[in-house]
Every structure is written in C-alpha cells, then in structure tokens.
Design brief:
Layout lengths: L1 E10 L3 H8 L5 H4 L3 E8 L8 E6 L5 E3 L2 E6 L3 E8 L2 E11 L5 E10 L1 H5 L2 H32 L1
C-alpha cells in the first residue's frame, strides 16, 4: 500500500528568500512548532547522502533520520526517511513565477505495511502538517524579502 500527500502555496518573494530560511535546519523549531530538535548527523549540510535527525512533535511524536536524495538550492530538495514498515520520500520545490513570486510545493510518497494501517484521520493530520510547514515557511520567507526591500 502507498499514498501521496501534496500541498502548495505561493509566496511574495524569490526562491532565494525561501531557501535562506529553509537551509537553517537547526532553526526549524523556531518557526515551525511541529518540529522539535533538528541536527546534522552525517555528511555536509544539504549534500546528497547526508543525514539529519528531525524530531516530529506532531501529529505523532517520532524522531526520523532522513537521507538527502537530491539538493539543488534554492529550487529543489528531496530526502527519504524509513522506519520499520514505513518509507517516506519527501520533496520540496521552490519555483520562481513570472510575476516574481515563488510557488512552494511539497509532496510525500509513503509506502510500506504501516501505510495500510493508517486511518483517514492520520492521513489528514499528515496533510495538515505539510500545509503548516509550507505556510510557516512562506511567512518567514516573505518576512526576509520585506526586510531586504526595506534596507534597499
């Protein structure tokens, strides 16, 4: 059994503003309440094959150690995380639009025995988590863009 969760939103900023906030992994919990402690545990930050530790506070409390599959800052990032009976491949894309805004997209493909046991409510909670992640990132990136504009 497998399923995909997707969410997207548009931010009034450039992909570089989004990446400036996103790349600071150790600060995610400062602006994203669903994430606890994060840190790099192997390799160089945002390099293919590197691994980080991420504590999810909700919708379920769990610590994951995803491996970076692809990193093309400031536009694309993918990682995979796995535990017994579960595999999740998570991707982010930050696409500049003709009007100067950025389309933020995320999707996760989940598979494994545990996915067949997930309730509709848990899937909805996971989708809500992805929405909160991108909406929080959007707000922070727009703040960076406004601050840069004010200084220019």
């Amino acid at each position: 059994m497998s399923f995909r969760l997707e969410y997207q939103t548009t931010a009034k900023c450039k992909p570089e503003h989004v990446w400036k906030k996103f790349e600071k992994l150790e600060q995610w919990s400062w602006w994203l309440p669903l994430i606890g402690k994060t840190k790099w545990v192997k390799g160089q930050p945002w390099q293919k094959g590197s691994r980080f530790s991420m504590e999810l506070v909700r919708p379920v409390h769990k610590t994951l150690q995803p491996v970076i599959l692809e990193a093309a800052p400031p536009h694309k990032l993918a990682w995979v995380g796995a535990s017994v009976g579960f595999r999740g491949e998570h991707q982010f894309a930050f696409e500049e639009q003709p009007d100067g805004s950025t389309l933020l997209k995320t999707w996760e493909d989940s598979s494994g025995l545990l996915t067949s046991l997930m309730s509709a409510k848990l899937k909805a909670d996971l989708l809500s988590m992805h929405k909160e992640w991108l909406e929080s990132l959007k707000a922070e990136a727009e703040k960076i863009a406004r601050e840069e504009f004010a200084r220019s």
